[in-house]
Amino acid sequence: MPTTPQPPEPVTPHAPRALPRPLLTQQWLDLAFVHWAVAPDAVAGLLPEGTVPDVLDGVTYVGLVAFRMHRVGWLHSPGVPYLGTFPETNVRLYSVDAHGRRGVVFRSMDAARLVPVLMGRAAFRLPYTWSRMDVRAEDDVITYTSSRRWPGPRGAHSRIVLRRGAPIGEPTGLEHFLTARWGMHNAFFGRTGYLPNDHPGWPLHRARLLACEENLLEAAGVAAPQGEPVSVLYSPGVPVRLGRPARPAGIPTP
């Protein structure tokens, strides 16, 4: 790691680094972004070594993000229609490392397909869990449900219902901060690494939260925030490419 931490990179609507040889391709569709403000000290201990909470105006955030994963593919293979297509709901925090790379940290990742769950846990050490899940749309109302099966805690669940609103022409600074994240930090085999991604700029809609019943945050070790979410957004989705994990020094792993 560098001896002098670098300042955080600017928040940009497009990826700061191109990925000429993606490790994975996929689509993220019908996304609900629900966020609460939290004090950085409240979540600092939940981040991997070498990262700290990423803050905006002295505040960081916890996100509950539900969506449909679509056609995950390895390298240049076509996306898999069944095993690579499933609902997913994530609890995530916001991080920055000593290189100034902004990212997210996943505290839990509920998914409806067992094989991708096992692969994500084994290959990337990600906190995937197997859950019964559903995403349904009726006109402008989208409902996301999740009930955990394995490895637990059993009974961890969520139900998010939102009404999609008008498209956003120019996102606010907070909306960029919460969505324009070009990588994730995770402990890969005992050392913190960075997995970059790139995709087109988010098409975003503001949304109205009609219902949010969940205990996924508590199950992920995050104290339940007080009050209403500070941001609720919807996106029809984007195609995504994920690069190879990078070590803390920024050197790609073999």
UniProtKB/TrEMBL annotation:
SUPFAM superfamilies, A to Z: Acetoacetate decarboxylase-like
Stored InterPro entries: ADC_dom_sf, DUF2071
Protein name stated in the entry: DUF2071 domain-containing protein
